Amino acid sequence: MTRRGVLAGLAAVLALAGGAAWKFRLFAKHYPSTPYDDLLDQITDREPAIVFGQAARNSLPGAAQLAAELRRDRRSLGERAAAEPGEAQIAEVAGWVVPQSVARYAALAAQA
Amino acid sequence: MSSFQDARTLPRDTVLSPDLAIVGGGPAGISLALALAESGQNILLLESGGRTFEADVQKLYEGSQTGVPYIALDGGRLRYLGGSTNHWGGWTRPLDKIDFENRKGMPYFGWPFRRDAIEPYFARAQSLIEAGPWIYDEADNVISGNGPLLRLGPGGIYTSWFQFSRTRDNNLPTHFGDRYQADLIKAARITPLLNANVTAIRLSPDAGRVTQLDVATLSGNRLTVKPRYTVLAAGAIENARLMLASNDVTTAGVGNGNDLVGRFFADHPIPRNVATLVLFDEGISPLYFNNVALPDGAVMRAVLSPRQEFMRAHGVAGSLTTVENEAKLDAFATAAVVTTAQALGVDASHAKAYSLGCGMEMAPDPDRRLTLRTERDALGMPRLNLHMTISDDDFTLFRQTLTELGRQLLAAKSGMLHISYNRRDEWLEAMDWGNHHLGTTRMHGDPKQGVVDANSKVHGIGNLYVAGSSVFPTYGSSNPTLNLVALTLRLADHLKKVMA
Description:
Number of strands of chain B: 21
Helix content of chain B: 10-25%
Radius of gyration of chain B: 24 Å
Oligomer: heterodimer
Number of strands of chain A: 2
Structural class of chain B: alpha/beta
Largest sheet of chain A: 2 strands, antiparallel
Largest sheet of chain B: 6 strands, parallel
Distance between the termini of chain B: 22 Å
Number of domains of chain B: 2
CATH class of the largest domain in chain B: Alpha Beta
Structural class of chain A: mainly alpha
Strand content of chain A: 5-15%
Radius of gyration of chain A: 20 Å
Strand order of the largest sheet of chain A: 1-2
CATH architecture of the largest domain in chain B: 3-Layer(bba) Sandwich
């Protein structure tokens, strides 16, 4: 076997492994399953969202209603967070001025 | 050529008869005297103090207070030649057009003229305070090489600019007494009289004219001044005190037929650490942090202000938000920043935080007022009580401005904002003040709503005027010195006409 062949084979194995890791989220953080994972999976890092959401949850509905409301808007968290400041859809959480959806997703994360 | 005279050394009961007596040798009094130096009128500039600080003179300012805690009445001003420019910070900025407007739903706001009326005087005022070339909000086009301005989305807040009175070898800015004493001496028709305390304004029996001023010294001397015209330029607290205390002909005091003298006192609240600014991926330009000197002599600093359109649309008062110090984020703050930045799709791993300060405009309040007490000072003048107030609306309106700033940071994906205070007690605990005394002889065309008219003449008294920020009926958020000097130069032009 040529040296070039060995390197090409190694590269192919690594690419396959990387693809599998991405596909099956082998290195992603895993959380206990909740009824709201379709929403919560949009949060990149759930721990800080849970911490922040503790301050937001008191002024927002419970998890089931909040999730139902969030699902009515088909935009992703990222799309909404980017658009809302321009639409004056902002919230204040413990003094922090944030896009409304950030407060709501974080509150959901804190309740889930 | 004249020279400084000392009231303590003039023969007792001397009578002086100038064309114009100016009471107070601060920025307004000195600017007025110099502006009229070539007018052909003999001018007597009466200054209570000497050329340097003296404790027994300063004690004449002592008074009492009620209401919201405020700086001691002898603490925020200086009683000697140059007045409070002897301790000012040199921040300068013209009032905005909106500061002169009558504003719907905002009682007592507005001047009897538009900003156009004092604009012709800004250039000379800028020169007197030695703040370099007139740049201010043109700075965006002038300044380069100090990093980009804060990225904000479209909205009500923008980067505006302060300039500074020139510093000399790291010394404080222009002290009017030191800086202009040679000019005062050089002017043949100006007589600066030091240690001369005006203790009473005497009116004609019909109360229509000032006939004389009583002058006393702490050493016990007494003089009389019989001027054709008088301008009070002793600051917003002393102007009111002198008018209220001169009550032998009109029992309510001079110019106080409608019980307005001493009311509407104001200052600029400057609560500390009002907010934390977080920038996701970049530090802030030093233009917001430090005073930056330009090659042409201007010293600039960027601040954040509400646009006039935003102020009109939302009924918001003026404010100037400053970037103060780098700040640290605690665990909760870090969680807020990470969560928000990730949702916005930006990297906040190098985020930097800064504490913000501000200067706020207060809404005019007739109950924020100076009144005479029975206790008297060493010259026999009644001391004052200041009843200080600040309304919850003042905080609420400024909070709207901060919220808008936060919204625009998010819209630009450049950062976010934490507002520090929500409750009144939190605001008050963080409160400091600008030492900008304003409003106690407010200007209005209607004598029932103002002490002086649009020419700064006291309503109903033919030869008595008031100069300085005590005539400001609405205050804006800009520091007052530049504006009060411009207004004084306008008064000088008026006096040239009426005294001729």
